[in-house]
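Weekly puzzle thread! Below is a chain. First person to post its structure in C-alpha cell form gets bragging rights.
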Amino acid sequence: MNLKTIHNVFFIGIGGVGMSALARYFVSDGKTVGGYDKTPTLITQSLTNLGVPIQFETVLDLIDKQFLNPNDTLVVFTPAISDLNPILQYFRAHNFQVLKRSEVLGLVTEYTQCLAVAGTHGKTTTSSILGHLMYECNEKVTAFIGGISENYQSNLIQNGTDISVVEADEFDRSFLTLSPDYACITSMDADHLDIYNSEDKLVEAFNQFTQKIKPSGKLFVRKGLPFEGITYGVNEAADYCAINILIDNGSYQFDLQTPNGLIQKITFHLPGAHNLSNAVAALAMALEFGCEVQNLKTALNTYKGVKRRFTYQIKTDDFVFIDDYAHHPTEINAVYQAVREMYPNQKVAVVFQPHLFSRTNDFADEFAASLSQFDAAFLLEIYPARELPISGVTSSWLLEKIKSPNKKLISKSDIASEIKKLGYPIFITLGAGDIGVEVSELKEKLTYAY
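Winning reply:
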C-alpha cells in the first residue's frame, strides 16, 4: 500500500497509546484523522485539541462523511477491539483498507532507518530514552512511544522522518510486521500466554523477529538472553556495560564500558537497576548508530522518564507517592528493587490492580510472591480489558496467596482512606488498567493529608 495516496485515516480504538501516536503522526503528515474509542480520556482530549473528531458510541451515523470513501480512506484498528464492533464490521463489509496498528507502523517505518525495541518488559522506557537521545543529537527522527514522555508530554517525538524509533510489540506477534535496521531485545519472560499458549511459542516468535532484521543490521541483546548479538548489561561481562555505579541524591552516576573504551561520568535520573539497564541499551544503539559521546551524555542527563513508569506524584520528607504501570510479576519485582534502593529502611504500601484474568491465572503464585515483598498489599478487582471472566480467578483468590501481614481487597474509592489509615511513608499504585485514572485524584487527596 502507498500511504501517499491516502488522504483520510480513521482509527478504531484511537485512545490507545500506540494508536494515538500513529494518529498524531498522520495529523503532522497532513492527513485528515478521526476515530472511535469507548471512553473519553486525557489522550482522546489531546487529540481533540489537535482537531481530530472522536466519537464514543458505535453509531455509524456519527462517522464523519469524509471517512466514508473507501478509495482514499485507511482504517486502522487495535487487536483490543472486538471483531463484533459495528464500526469495524462496517468498514470491512464495504471494502475499505482495514489494517492492524502494527501493520500500519510497518508501512510508516518501511523506508526509514528503523530502530526497534522488543522485549516483554522495558520497551517503552528504552524506546523513549533512545528517541530522546536521537532527538537531542539532532538526528532526523520520529519516535513512536508506548507511553507519554515527560520531556515532550507526548507519545510522539519528531525531528524529521529519515529515522524511526519504535516499540516492537510481541503481543499478537505484532513485531513481525517490522523490518528494522537495528533491533534490541530487553527481556523475554513468559507473558501473553493467552496469545502464545506456551513459553516455547513466545521464544519462537522472538526468534522470528530477529530474522526480520535487515542483512546489514545489528541486534542488541540483554546479557543472558539466548540470542547472538551485541550484548549489554549492568556490572557484567557485556559489550556495553554500566560499571563504577554510584547513587547520588536519587540519581545514578556511572561509567560505560564499550568496545571502544570507557565513557566516564554519565548521569541518569531514573531509579532502579532495570531502568539503568534500559539506559545502557539505548546508549549502545545510539553509539553504534554514530551519535557523539558528549551529546549523548548531555541528552541522558536531561531525560525525565515516561508517565506511569516509577513516576513520583508526591515527594516530600514525610511522604512519597509513586505510580507505575507494572502489571507482570517481573515488573513488580523491578519496582520493589528500585524503591528499596531509594528508601532502604522505610515501610512501603502497594495498591495493585491485576490486569487480565488470563495473566492473573497464569502467574498467580509469581504475583503473590512479588506482592508479598511489600509491607502492605491492597488489591483492586481484576481489570478485564479484552477478556471474559475465568471461573475461580478473582482478586480474592489471589489475595489468599499473598503472605504480607497487611493485605486487603479494597475498592478504588477506598484507596485514599486506607493509605491514610495505614500511615506508611511510601505508597505505590501499580497496574495497567484504569487505576491510572485514579492517580490525579489520589494525589490531590493525599497531598492535603500529609
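Puzzle host: Confirmed. Bonus trivia for everyone else. The domain at 3-100 is CATH 3.40.50.720 (Rossmann fold).
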